[in-house]
Amino acid sequence: MKNFISPTFLIIYSSLLLFSSITYAEDSNFATEEIDDPAFDECLLNKTKQANTPITYQELKRKCIAQLSKVDEEQQQTPEFFHRFSSEEVVAFNPYVMTPHKMNYILPFSYTDNINRDAYTDAGGKGYGDELMGMEAKFQISFKVPLITQRIFNEGDGIAFGFTLQSWWQLYNQDLSRPFRETNYQPEIFYYTPLNWQPAGGKTNLVLGMEHQSNGRSQLLSRSWNRLYANFTFAKDNYAISFRPWWRIPEGDEKTTPDESANDNPDIIDYMGHFELIFAYKWDSIEFSFTGRENFKEHHGGMEFGVTFPLTGRLNGYFQYTNGYGESLIDYNHSQQRIGIGIALTNIF
Q1: Would you say 303 and 323 are in contact if contact means Cβ atoms under 8 Å apart?
Q2: Domain layout of the chain by residue ranges
Q3: What angle do CA 279, 280, 285 make, to 5 degrees?
Q4: Using one digit for the tens of pLDDT, what is the confidence trace for 209-244?
Q5: Catalytic residue among 86, 212, 274, 335, which?
Q6: Quick one: which H or E segment has residue 59?
Q7: Which residue of the set 21, 86, 87, 214 is catalytic?
Q8: Do 58 and 25 meet the contact criterion of CB atoms below 8 Å apart?
Q9: Does 212 qualify as catalytic in the annotation?
Q10: Which of 271, 275, 264 is nearest to 229 (CA)?
Q11: Which among 194, 187, 190, 195 has a CA at the least distance from the CA of 208?
Q12: For the chain, N or C: smaller number of CB within 10 Å?
């Protein structure tokens, strides 16, 4: 993402450059050596802003080289999956950088073989459900904001706020004026920490969080739930496995009616289950991911399979296939298959 550098910074930076060329003439090779690395430029910018006393360009440069060397050394010992988390710490509080949380993608073409018409029959108006199209667009936007990065219990732990938005858009449905059929909002707050347990030479981490998910609708179309979750991840080399169980915060068993708002979906656990299992693998420049949910008692569940692949430059394509219950909140008790193709804005690794 492009940084917008203020005139004040340019003046300070130029002054430091001039001062360093006069004071440290004997170190000219070091001073004039060019480093073509966005992370290095980012480090210079951050350290200039943080400096409380005059500092030369050489000192800034040495500090950044030392910092990036330390990051490189740590990354050489870190599995592919955790590389992104290490680099995020460097720019965590930069106001010009939005840190991704889950995947960000746009699927202009997304087709389902069984669009959920029943949910809209009573609530969406006469004939609304019948006019829905199986072809629509789907996208996901997800980011996080660090709240505490200083050590709490372990080195490298912290607390963050995350937000994920998913939307299903009837882009090609001109008869219905191209409405957004369903949008899910998912804010969460979570504690994350690396673990010292390193089975089979891999690395592990743990996330403990609380999240709310809803579709922002009213009465019969309203869907929402709250849950506490834990997420344990094991990563080694170019693959990662994550186990994420949850506990739904009780809301009662009374269903929402047109006259009274109670529990939008009291049986959501029957379809969404109590956990999800995630597997991610990177082969060369192609990334594969699989997410599965299951309620073994009710024999209901759902899965999502995704593939990201390079297109041109820094642009990656994304293929997604889903099957079962719970692709969205409005579809939590509706089974379908969906296939989509588009662009991945961020990757898994």
Answers
A1: yes
A2: 7-77, 99-344
A3: 160
A4: 999 999 998 878 999 999 999 999 999 989 999 999
A5: 212
A6: helix 57-76
A7: 214
A8: no
A9: yes
A10: 275
A11: 190
A12: N
